[in-house]
Design goal:
single chain, about 0% strand, rod-shaped
Length: about 80
């Protein structure tokens, strides 16, 4: 099994966090921009960030389970973890 590419998976999140305000400012300069558009844009970005946070949590839990299982069966770590 190949290791997951977390940089590729979470790269868009980095853009949202680093450039989100700049992106919104650029949209606000467009003709026809309204506060409603800005609010909808911000809500969409917040939902995207929350979805990424849920994915990060899930990835962490999977990695934790995998690491815990390996640690328990490890000859050196197992006895020290209280599993044996």
């Amino acid at each position: 099994m190949d290791a997951p590419d977390f940089v590729a998976k979470y790269g868009p999140l980095i853009h949202i966090l680093e450039a989100g305000e700049k992106d919104l400012e650029e949209i606000a300069e467009e003709e026809g921009y309204t506060r409603t558009i800005g609010r909808e844009w911000r809500n969409a970005h917040c939902k995207a960030v929350l979805a990424y946070l849920r994915a990060i949590r899930t990835d962490y839990e999977v990695l934790w389970q995998q690491a815990s299982a390996k640690a328990v069966s490890d000859a050196w770590l197992g006895p020290r973890s209280g599993a044996f």
